[in-house]
């Protein structure tokens, strides 16, 4: 187990270098004058262009630029934003908020997704099953910003049940609606995945044996059905953490949450490439760690899985 | 066009001359509650500042709006008429429009107690004008004596060699007379100088800035009616009324919270739900069918601002060079009335010249017959011209309505002239600007201008004088240059006549086609009364009251 984790951690280094190089190259390969949008209709003062070119090493070839970036990154320096904050400062303010939002979304996926999926599987073919299958289809087919605006307008502006936008510091209560919107797409998939996986397990030999042995129903469900059905679901939710972090751009925009999504969006809009690269690098790191965590969780769910 | 390069001006012309649907916003009786609370705290829509909060280095609205609330310059603009009024200055006078004597009101201080004296202006202006400080508003000082010695150019244009260190660190044109008096000498006569110095770039700076510019940029110490007491760019800033402010325009509220939004739609939803008190521009989607007027009856304003949209023809391209007939043909072929109605829902007004109707000196119909839709005459001019098309119209796809407008313009040209016209999208403003500044455009493209200060000069000289900073199409006319020079040296009506004569030259050459003037649509909550929108397109924080 320890060796497995060490190997996985070492493997992260080439992955991280590869992805950051791609992100870096792409961010700077965007055509256009990187200073054009900073000075309005007028060309930027020459002294300004010079100072920025030098600061960002734009006058050097791409590999050299990237070398500078990598060297700084290893020392914990992810660059500076135009407004004078370090990227790390900006991220450390935004990241906890996005994590909170992601946690709320994951909770919805776990509780509602697995819960409803289980109920639907047990009542297969019933009215409830049909209803859930239909609503999950709706959730999958609508883009999340449509769901976001509709729910914001109906439940926030009109009914006043939820706050319309999220206050500074993102209190948990404010995050319920945006968390649900962010989760809606994945929630539908988790529901369907749980239902399908459960139906398969319900037909399995060991479940039939358990029923034949006369074990109590709840125990069969918990120990023999759910546990076995959850592996694909957990894999999906694990992979989803990355998607949620990225997909948060839309939801954070609709509900005005000052998280990572908003940070990247703002940086992209004003072409603050240094911030884009810095933030995405940190997001890549998080995704790598979450995936490691998911792989380790397998062993808890299925003792047959061993790491060597 | 997302950047602020501007100050807009008063509503009077908008309501009168333009007959825009200007709602009476000054009555303040909309809510009917009447009671006002001097301890009220109000919330205002804001965007994240892109740069540190230093006046010389801020050129977009996110930071500019906050600086304008906490700072006062030599002059301030009347929220109704846009006329400059003395603020920190006692008087700004000159006998030749070249050397200006500025006297300051005595006893004014910054929020840390240090005096607002001649040095605080001179040091701030020198800092901004000094090339190596790389301040974004550096070019505002180009007309001052000694500017050239403070700004050097790179000998090999962005190459490995660096620009040499400038010879001087101070403008020779700035001289301290006493603690409350200094003089500013310009390279050439500029009668609009007193109007110009109200712009953000000309605010004074206290000693605290020079001690630690970085810390200052995060929480500036200013000299205006409000001071920053909390917050940052990510969530917003809390501005508290400053008790030490000696100006007459004292705030009638205790606190203004500038809330940072990442999307204007979220801000609009907050206004509808009563969580946000003021939003200075309604999102494009809510302009359709004047929806914002139904959403917020009696709590909106629609007023003209100092922004004009134009189309530029490249004078470095052989097809368009010295070819006024082609410009006239194209201008006659654009149906401005229909396009502004269908695409901008009346949020814009067809232009009849190159100057926004909200500034003094504006004269309607400078463009004359060429700005009215006339397909028959358009064809005549096309026949006379040496280039017969086809045309492409380039635009940046990231601005709201740009794509629709570009396609409508091209369709209008196609129908009227019966030649091909293609709308060519650029991914964003920066990409378009790269080709524009490299002079790579080979056909028409979208241009626009937001004024820096409310004066007719700002719509002409920076854009169309030979070699001027924003003369993107390389328009050049000795007659135009002479008239502008003459106008800058003259005063009052005489100056306006020369500016207008210069504008007439643009109509003869027709290398820049006027399209439309822009308006601003703001909404506010039931709590606010006495709402006025300033010439800088923001809420006038010193006259607004809240319940």
Automatic annotation (TrEMBL), chain B:
The keyword Signal applies. Coiled coil: none annotated. It comes from the Bacteria. Keywords: Signal. Residues 85-470 form the Solute-binding protein family domain. PANTHER family: ABC TRANSPORTER SUBSTRATE-BINDING PROTEIN, PERIPLASMIC BINDING COMPONENT OF ABC TRANSPORTER. CDD domains: PBP2_NikA_DppA_OppA_like. Residues 1-24 form the signal peptide. This is Oligopeptide transport system substrate-binding protein.
